[in-house]
Design goal:
The protein folds into 2 domains: 89-141 and 156-220, Potassium Channel Kv1.1, Chain A (2-Layer Sandwich), CATH 3.30.710; 221-324 and 343-416, no CATH class. Helix 3 crosses helix 4 (134-140), helix 7 runs antiparallel to helix 8 and helix 12 (282-303) runs antiparallel to helix 17. It has helices at residues 47-50, 70-75, 126-132, 134-140, 148-153, 168-180, 190-203, 206-219, 235-248, 251-262, 265-273, 282-303, 344-357, 360-366, 373-376, 378-381, 387-412, and strands at residues 39-41, 59-60, 79-80, 92-94, 101-107, 112-117, 120-125, 160-162. It is built from 17 helices and 8 strands. The protein is elongated. It is of the alpha/beta class and 417 residues long. Residues 44-58 have a biased composition (Low complexity). This is BTB domain-containing protein. Residues 1-61 are annotated as: Disordered.
Length: 417
């Protein structure tokens, strides 16, 4: 590796270059206009694969719940288009500049190419860049871009490849992983994974892109339910994660980040007060309101159902007392006696009264995935309901959590049909 040096100076041979034109001429001009730094934009022959679309068609998201028609009412009107940001990664070729600074960490000898990010110049292995990064493989190929870059390089003795729209900090994190990615064992910090995602996407470096996506998928896991009554994630981190997930099409990360915002009371208050102060895209703001409304509806339908109760007659179906009611009696593992059995409708009304009085109707609607209504109110419930009834409600909630968690996928992922 070459040691750090003073800022690079443009060589005399680098001052002669050719002004860019729409098409390469059949014969090079006899004399090019002298410039301190000439830049040639290399058109991409695979632009469609290097960028994401800036918009997607509106979709009709409609999800049915097998146990109740309330689900149909809850999700009606969830029509949205998913915002996505385009990533500009058109690499340019130019000569040295007097303002360039040589990298102290990534400047190698041998078969190298010069790459400039912001004002820092890196001397990197040509073969490694060509093998791992699709954009450089295209540029180095004689016919990969129609011969444009080959024609441009004929006028610049020491060409420098400029990578726009990324920072030198991100690029150096990328280079550090590029040198050792085949034998990495330690998990990457989130900020490093984000840097890798940006650079690897811009350069079409699939091995590093896969590492970045995998790590972010672990940090923002959309496949696993959050544990009951677990703390919510950090608001600012979730907002940034949503923008990143939209830009780079990471549905699992998007799902978890959206949910973490929905479960954050401070964020919900801020969303009601001034939605646009949250710095979210307006389509995501609308989506959050719609999902929260839908989850609130299905939670209220669920939590008002009394334990082990026939939905038609209101009679108990508790195995401890078949055909009878086992609520409103002192907690016991014994079969309730007929004298302690209240009227059938009292079973339903007493449960509904308890749910409303203890605030479960509202609090659970804010976060039905984490709100453990049975666990939070076990002390009071055990005075009136048997353990079998309470366990039945707890099991039903666990089943519904899985069902609701799957519904988030349908709401967040656009329907392409």
């Amino acid at each position: 590796m070459t040691p750090p040096d003073t800022p690079l100076k443009p060589s005399k041979t680098n001052k002669r270059s050719c002004a860019p034109s729409d098409e390469p001429p059949s014969t090079p001009p006899k004399r090019a206009r002298a410039t301190a730094r000439s830049t040639f934009r290399v058109p991409s022959s695979s632009a469609s694969s290097d960028t994401t679309t800036s918009s997607s068609p509106s979709v009709n998201i409609h999800c049915a719940r097998s146990s109740s028609d309330a689900m149909d009412r809850a999700v009606q009107g969830l029509h949205m288009s998913v915002p996505q940001a385009a990533w500009g990664n058109s690499i340019t070729i130019s000569s040295m500049s007097a303002d360039d600074v040589r990298s102290s960490a990534f400047y190698y000898d041998g078969q190298v190419v010069l790459v400039r990010v912001q004002r820092t110049v890196y001397s990197l292995s040509r073969s490694k860049l060509a093998d791992l990064c699709g954009r450089f493989a295209e540029l180095f190929s004689p016919s990969g871009d129609g011969g444009w870059s080959t024609w441009v390089r004929s006028f610049i003795k020491t060409p420098v490849y400029d990578i726009p729209a990324i920072s030198s900090e991100d690029f150096e994190r990328f280079l550090a992983v590029l040198e050792r990615f085949t034998h990495m064992t330690e998990p990457l910090p989130e900020d490093t994974a984000v840097s890798l995602l940006r650079v690897a996407h811009a350069l079409a470096c699939e091995p590093i892109l896969a590492i970045a996506k995998k790590r972010l998928g672990e940090l923002w896991d959309g496949s696993q339910l959050p544990p009951p009554d677990s703390p919510v994630g950090e608001t600012e981190a979730a907002i940034k994660a949503i923008a990143l997930a939209r830009q780079y099409n990471l549905p699992g990360m998007l799902k978890r980040a959206v949910y973490e915002l929905l479960g954050d009371k401070k964020f919900r208050d801020a969303l009601r007060k001034d939605p646009y102060a949250t710095r979210l895209h307006h389509r995501d703001i609308t989506l959050l309101f719609q999902i929260r409304s839908a989850l609130g509806d299905i939670w209220r339908d669920f939590v008002l159902v009394a334990p082990c109760t026939d939905p038609q007659s209101g009679h108990s179906i508790c195995y401890l007392a078949p055909g009878k009611d086992c609520d409103l009696s002192p907690f016991s593992t014994q079969t309730p006696t007929p004298q302690k059995t209240p009227r059938a409708r009292d079973r339903v009304s007493s449960w509904e009264h308890f749910v409303i009085r203890t605030g479960q109707l509202k609090e659970g609607a804010d976060d039905p995935f984490r709100y453990d209504s049975i666990g939070r109110n076990a002390g009071q419930l055990e005075k009136s309901w048997c353990q079998y009834c309470l366990q039945e409600r707890r099991n039903a909630w666990e089943e519904k959590r899985l069902e609701w968690w799957g519904m988030l996928d349908a709401w967040l992922v656009p329907n392409k049909s």
